[in-house]
Amino acid sequence: MHHHHHPCNRKPITVSSLLFFFLYLNLHSPQTIEARNPSQFTINPSQPDVVTIPEIKRHLHRFGYLQRSNDSKSDAILFEKALARYQKNLGLPITGKPDSDTLSHIRLPRCGFPDYVESKTTAFHAGQKYVYFPGKPRWTRDSPLKLTYAFSQENLTPYLTPAQIRRVFRRAFGKWASVIPVSFVETEDYVFADIKIGFFAGDHGDGEPFDGVLGVLAHTFSPENGRLHLDNAETWAVDFDEQKSSVAVDLESVAVHEIGHVLGLAHSSVKDAAMYPTLKPRSKKVDLNIDDVVGVQSLYGTNPNFTLSALLASETSTNLADGTMMIRPQGLIFSTLSTLLFLIFLDL
Asked: Which of 18, 29, 149, 230 pairs with 248 at a CA distance of 20 to 30 A?
């Protein structure tokens, strides 16, 4: 549930808070430079760069953008509209054409869950990019909410030890638990666990077969299903210094994303968000973006120990450390000034 503070208990806005706010706004202003180099999205140098129209149509159909049509006259119009919706959902320039940016993203590895092409957020959240599943499902239990998770011991990856996998998921669950009043507890009882985690290959009985190396990396089902499946064909990694494969996939990045689905978030169009659908090989995205945080808190309320200023400070220091403060390929974090002011207000 959301916490409503009595007006008399609100902390005063300090000069330092305002300075921090405007510094952050300036660093994420529209002056940021978006990377538009298609070569940086290449999955595998040995693969051809050509993506055919039938392949694009299959991709758009697979992820919820394009319905099958036998009418050749309307087919071109539907294809253009589907491309435009895809571009909008992934935060790309909306051209309705299969341009280089769009083709680059179609070739990126991604989550197997379909994108919802129409926003399911309310008008109040119109400035945000996070999206819920239809019907806004969430886990409904007595408060405080505690969810158990377990690993299928028969379905693990050969690239990592069970201890490595457990550590990764403990960190990933901790990211979400730090912002909402939900705790995650590992159990050995896979059958009765709320969240069931396993690595599976090809057709594994849930109607959503995996497709081999890269392509779809993982998929999850909306609350309160709890199944979290990872493609066992992937070269899963926790340390790119140790795992040299050009198609290695960071397990923690995918785990953080899929847990967001487990909790009820669909895909975001914010490229910095954990809930953005694609992930390049040998890349990491393990931290929650403000879009992720506000989205999940709107479902479950706020962890009493969470503060927005701490998240902003952490994100700023991370960007400074990796040298991406002024040139940010992933694009803007916030969409409107009013959203920023509202978030600052919530933190008071």
From this structure: 149
Query: Domain limits at 145?
Result: 126-308
Do 194 and 252 fall into the same domain? yes
Q: 287 labelled as ligand-binding?
A: no
What digits encode the pLDDT tens for the residues 297-338? 999 999 999 987 777 766 655 555 544 433 333 333 333 333
φ/ψ of residue 189, rounded to 5? -85, 90
Residues 188, 99: one domain?
A: no
Other Cβ atoms closer than 10 A to 213:
17
118 in catalytic set: no
153 with 296, same domain?
Answer: yes
| Catalytic annotation, pick one of 80, 224, 258, 315 | 258
Total domains in the fold of the chain: 2
- 271 and 132 assigned to the same domain: yes
What is the amino acid identity at position 42?
A: T
The answer to whether 4 is annotated as binding is no
Q: Hey, what are 152's tokens?
A: 């299928």
Distance in angstroms (rounded) separating the CA atoms of residues 306 and 253: 21
